[in-house]
Amino acid sequence: MTVIASIETTLAHQVRLVHTATGQRIPITAPALLSTPFGWRVRVAGDEAVVVVPTGQPAVTPAPRLQMVVADGVLADLLDLPPLDPDQEPRSVRVPLTAAEIEVPVPPVKMTLTVVLTAAGTGDPSTGRMVTVRGTPGPAIPLPETVEPGTYRSAAIVWDRKHTPGDLRVGTTSVRKVGVDVRRTDTRVHVIDPT
User: Quick check: is 142 in a domain?
Assistant: First the structure.
């Protein structure tokens, strides 16, 4: 008769990457423990990494670190990921396992929002307007007119959840909700001038 030993395990850590502009989880792949204490295992569950440890095992010091790779290469190129260690895989993030639930905020790179404003009826460029995006709360983001008539563009900034989406305003008139496309460095929106 053969007896196979088994180890009872407990969920110890859940780790997520969260996009700061959208508040959405960032899909990950290839989670790996950089040092693997006896019996520890890691896997992807949905869009988070879960780490299980042997039940009753004492805490490990220092805390092991987990490496996760951003699954979407296009999105990864538009995230401001932490600097890589020399031996670190591209598009990855390393996290010390210091809590049961860990959310790692990951900001996007600086992006611009461009609004092409046209006059109602004629379709001509609407020039000389004051265009802003106002979040709740927070200051308005100005979109000054560019050298191209009727085209308004924000400075390259790190957009946050207060402004994605935000109220697009022409003067004091709210036009619609707009936000940046986090998969592009410049989001372009065409709008009819209601003023």
Answer: yes
